[in-house]
Design a protein that fits this description.
567 residues; alpha/beta; OB fold (Dihydrolipoamide Acetyltransferase, E2P); Rossmann fold; 8-stranded mixed beta sheet; 7-stranded mixed beta sheet; 22 strands; globular; binds S-adenosylmethionine; NA-bd_OB-fold
């Protein structure tokens, strides 16, 4: 077999990127747009030692799972990868993908997963769900402006104004913009030359409000005859905000930093549940409003809030989960790396009159450990507290330093929202190896017709939840517990009080006349192989060289540990 050879394949499986997988002459081939149970003719495009890639040339016998795509350019366009697969099969594929990762990477037992995994939440109407679209503008061979989407992994524009995932109004907006460009000879931007004006058209729609935003991304500071354009766009029902965004850089990044208002408001408004949001062209906002409510509802259900809880929402974006949970919690803290998003979160809390949500700009893996360290240093007898921790990290998952602090904080419940089940599985392995138990897993199809899937997991801290039921009979006789023995036994089994670093420090100072730093106590405990769950300086020590106490201090600390029967 060699490159460009034609092969016949029976497709047996589906790869993580949605491609069909089949075998020919002992070699595994990956074929885009081929579907399980298809028999196809394909041309080899790349050969490796034991596998290769091939291009689908002809479907010889179509699979029963094959569906006529709604979109005419489904194959060429890079937006959807699996539109040709029947939707119920897409859902099975996504569930399987998550289960396989939890099994292979997370090391969870298949039977156990069968018990904790709840059925995937799919969409009733899996088309036209996106509330945001960014259309690149280009020029066709005849020199006319076109709008569409990039072909997969390229910047070649596939002209298409009727995307099956976007809102129907998008087509009307694009028709107005392209007509205007033709009439007033407004040139489309060219990535090759860096010349031309209009680069992209961003369209956003408020799902509950019907408000529409159009933002024209331009390589310049002015749009000639802009009033004519806004006048035409304003006639479309729901038009609320027309802005332009200046991006004169030679870059792949779509949006520039500066926004100028052309007509209407600077933002549109929408709701998730009861919470109102102001969304500007640069704001991050979930793109599937129907499934966002499902996802957040699930996160809220798993958080099990009664009104008394302190909740940390890490990787909080514009605070959408934080604000969604705030009404059911005592206090919510949100942490996000992008300062602009934190400003939006605070503004959205204000708009909704929410006073029990505080937001911090910074890296989750720095803000939480810093809080933990500071709290335990200032309150040595107490434990830095969180009832529920919610994490919703980007695809790379949670930082190890953050996971370590989460384990130390011993939150009763962790709700992990993930957009990448491989990194989710890796992080769950760590958390479940360090005091947590996986209780529930549910996938939510936020992006039908693409290979992406969101997963929500509930983890519960083992100690407070575990209990055993014992039946005891009191009195005299076989199998009964004599009453007089009860007091004696109770004394024996009385839980030992928690020995704090402060108690050890006070004991040493009283007996030996010198002070010992908490980091030294931690170091001695570590040298004795003791569990370091509650060492307040452990994270600090990962970043800095460990402190080594003098011998006399080591002996004094060991003496204190013996005195308190810790060793
Ligand atoms: C998947 S989004 C979740 C956003 C939000 N929870 C929501 O539902 O809209 C992940 C967020 O994490 C933020 N982020 C990325 N790295 C971070 C870090 N190290 N610390 C805090 N936030 C981070 C990103 O800016 C992004 O807003």
């Amino acid at each position: 077999m060699k490159k460009n050879d034609f092969i016949t394949l029976e497709i047996e499986d589906i790869g993580v990127g949605g491609e069909g997988i089949g075998k020919a002459e002992g070699m595994t081939f990956f074929v885009k747009d081929a579907i399980v149970e298809d028999v196809i003719e394909a041309r080899i495009t790349k050969l490796k030692k034991s596998y290769g890639y091939a291009r689908l040339m002809k479907v010889l016998k179509p699979s029963g799972k094959r569906k006529e795509p709604k979109c005419l350019v489904a194959r060429q366009c890079g937006g959807c990868q699996i539109q040709e697969i029947d939707y119920s099969e897409q859902l099975k594929f996504k569930e399987r993908k998550v289960r396989n990762n939890l099994e292979r990477i997370g090391g969870f037992d298949r039977a156990f997963l069968g018990r904790v995994m709840e059925p995937i939440c799919g969409m009733e109407e899996p088309f036209h769900y996106r509330n945001k679209a960014q259309y690149p503008i280009g020029t066709d061979r005849e020199g006319y402006p076109v709008a569409g989407f990039y072909a997969g992994r390229t910047h070649q524009i596939i002209p298409n104004m009727v995307c099956a995932l976007g809102k129907e109004i998008n087509t009307q907006v694009l028709e107005v913009v392209l007509d205007f460009m033709r009439e007033f000879q407004i040139p489309a931007y060219s990535e090759e030359t860096g010349r031309g004006l209009l680069r992209h058209v961003l369209i956003r729609t408020g799902f509950h409000t019907g408000e529409i935003m159009v933002c024209l991304i331009v390589n310049g500071t002015q749009i000639p005859h802009a009033e004519e354009l806004t006048g035409r766009l304003r006639k479309l029902p729901g038009m609320t905000s027309i802005t332009m965004n200046i991006n004169c850089e030679n870059t792949n990044v779509i949006m520039g930093k500066e926004i100028r208002l052309l007509w209407g408001k600077e933002y549109i408004t929408d709701y998730i549940g009861e919470i109102k949001y102001q969304i500007s062209p640069l704001s991050f906002y979930q793109v599937n409003p129907v499934q966002t409510e499902v996802l957040y509802g699930l996160a809220c259900e798993y958080a099990g809030l009664t009104g008394n809880e302190t909740v940390w929402d890490l990787y909080c974006g514009i605070g959408t989960i934080s604000l969604f949970l705030a009404g059911k919690a005592k206090q919510v803290y949100g942490v996000e790396i992008i300062p602009q998003a934190i400003e939006d979160a605070r503004k959205n809390a204000d708009i909704n009159g929410i006073e029990n949500a505080e937001f911090y700009a910074g890296k989750a893996e720095e803000v939480l450990p810093d809080y933990y360290r500071k709290y335990e240093t200032e309150h040595p007898e107490e434990h830095a507290h969180a009832d529920v921790i919610v994490v919703d990290p980007p695809r790379k998952g949670c930082d190890q330093r953050l996971l370590e602090t989460m384990v130390r904080m011993e939150a009763k419940r962790i709700v992990y929202v993930s957009c990448d089940s491989a990194t989710l599985a890796r992080d769950l392995k760590y958390l479940c190896g360090n005091g947590y138990e996986m209780k529930k897993v549910r996938t939510v199809d936020m992006f039908p017709h693409t290979v992406h899937v969101e997963t929500v997991v509930l983890l519960s801290h083992k100690s407070p939840d575990s209990h055993i039921d014992i039946k005891v009979e009191f009195g005299e006789g076989k199998g009964k517990v004599p009453l007089e023995a009860i007091a004696e036994r109770a004394k024996k089994y009385q839980p030992k009080p928690k020995i704090t670093y402060k108690m050890i420090q006070e004991y040493v100072e009283k007996k030996y006349g010198f002070k010992v730093h908490t980091a030294y106590i931690a170091e001695v405990k570590r040298s004795l192989g003791m569990t370091m769950y509650d060492a307040p300086n452990a994270v600090e020590e990962l970043n800095q060289p460990r402190k080594h106490p003098l011998k006399e201090k080591v002996e004094a600390i060991k003496d204190a540990l013996k005195y308190f029967e810790v060793i």
